[in-house]
Write a structure and sequence with these properties.
Elements: H1 2-15, E1 22-27, H2 43-53, E2 58-63, H3 66-74, E3 80-84, E4 94-96, E5 101-110, E6 127-131, H4 138-145, E7 150-154, H5 157-165, E8 172-175, H6 176-186, H7 189-192, E9 195-197, E10 202-211, H8 217-234, H9 236-245, H10 252-256
Helix pairs in contact: 2-8
């Protein structure tokens, strides 16, 4: 009997995760991908939570303004931060996970206007909206800096859509899913139907940044990547993305008021 008991204990230890930890991750407001008010804290947050759960890990999220979110994780006060694009200046302080999500950036425009273009520089002469502080890729940034593109930046995505609907700008760049999220939140269907999108000009991967100052950095990186792979292979990742496409992550109170 003792032999059987000892065997079961050893078996349970072998099947248990190599380490047990509550991972502390900074987060921010970027619906539908991250939001303190959304179900599961948004799509990207849910993916991260489920991937780590498959490795036996719990998650504690802290929601902060983006600059503080990055600084808190950079210093090691929090273990990681979600989700961010890859940049050289961050690589000195963070390890990058495998991509959590991939998003396509498009231009929204009015249906009563057509735009034939292949390269961004061909949009010279059009008035393009932009949101202050947002990064639309290195090519767009350089063309804006060189005044090839006429970009007028305002404080919010919502304000840009108002300008677009009023025909005060011609184009507005934003990730496809985020754009429709903003439209569905703030505008009636009648106005949304006046808009369409161009082909994507940028596809971007977004990552979990793991602080090199965290004592669990390497373990967290390996565990998350393994969990994400399992999530993808099981089909659960596709289920999460499909649910997001039909608004499953919207706040419950928001659904009730529709």
């Amino acid at each position: 009997m003792r032999t059987v008991t000892a065997f079961l204990i050893l078996l349970s230890l072998a099947l248990a995760p190599a380490w047990a930890e509550t991972v502390r991750i900074t987060n921010g407001e970027w619906p539908p991908y991250m939001s303190e008010q959304y179900n599961h804290y948004g799509v990207a947050s849910h993916i991260v939570t489920e991937a780590l759960k498959l490795e036996g890990l719990d998650v504690e999220y802290g929601f902060f303004p983006w600059v503080r979110s990055l600084e808190f994780s950079k210093s090691g006060r929090w273990d990681a931060s979600i989700v961010w694009t890859r940049s050289a200046d961050r690589e000195a302080f963070f390890l990058y996970s495998d991509p959590v999500i991939k998003l396509r950036t498009v231009f929204f425009n009015r249906r009563d206007k057509t735009f034939n273009w292949e390269k961004l520089k061909e949009l010279k002469g059009y008035k393009i909206g932009g949101t202050i502080g947002y990064f639309y890729g290195p090519e767009f940034t350089q063309l804006e800096k060189d005044k090839v593109l006429n970009v007028v930046r305002v404080r919010s995505d919502e304000q840009n859509f108002k300008l677009l609907l009023a025909d005060r700008i011609d184009l507005f760049p934003i990730e496809l899913e985020v754009g429709y999220e903003v439209l569905n939140r703030y505008f009636p269907s009648k106005q949304i139907n006046l808009l369409t999108t161009t082909h994507p000009f940028r596809e971007t991967s977004y990552y979990m940044l793991i602080s090199k100052a965290s004592p669990i950095a390497e373990k967290l990186l390996n565990s998350f990547n393994q969990g994400l792979k399992k999530l993808r292979q099981s089909g659960k990742l596709d289920e999460i993305l499909d649910a997001a496409a039909v608004g499953a992550y919207h706040p419950i109170q928001e659904k009730a008021s529709e």
